[in-house]
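Incident log, support desk, overnight shift.

02:14 A customer reports that sequence design results differ from what the structure should imply. Their input is reproduced verbatim below. On-call engineer (initials T.W.) acknowledged and began investigating.
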C-alpha cells in the first residue's frame, strides 16, 4: 500500500552535512553544495517551492526512508508530513 506524504526541505537551514543522502537516495547534492530532493521520473511525486523550502508530495512506498533522512538531519532542515499530521 502506498501512502501520500510530503517532504519539506528548508534549504536555507541545510549546512551540507548530507546525512540525509545516506538514508534516502532521493536526496542529492545540488550544484550549490546543499541538499535537494530528486523524486526521479517515475511520476510518483509533485515538487514545488513554498516559503523558500522545497516541498515534494510523494505517493510511493518510501515513507520510512524519508522519515529516517529527517531524523538524521543535524539541523532539522527536513520535515515529513503524512495525512495524519493534518488531522
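02:41 Re-run completed on a clean worker. Output:
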Amino acid at each position: 500500500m502506498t501512502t501520500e506524504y510530503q517532504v519539506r526541505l528548508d534549504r536555507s537551514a541545510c549546512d551540507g552535512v548530507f546525512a540525509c543522502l545516506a538514508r534516502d537516495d532521493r536526496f542529492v547534492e545540488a550544484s550549490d553544495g546543499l541538499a535537494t530532493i530528486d523524486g526521479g521520473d517515475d511520476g510518483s511525486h509533485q515538487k514545488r517551492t513554498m516559503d523558500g523550502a522545497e516541498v515534494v508530495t510523494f505517493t510511493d512506498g518510501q515513507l520510512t526512508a524519508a522519515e529516517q533522512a529527517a531524523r538524521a538531519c543535524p539541523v532539522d532542515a527536513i520535515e515529513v508530513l503524512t495525512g495524519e499530521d493534518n488531522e
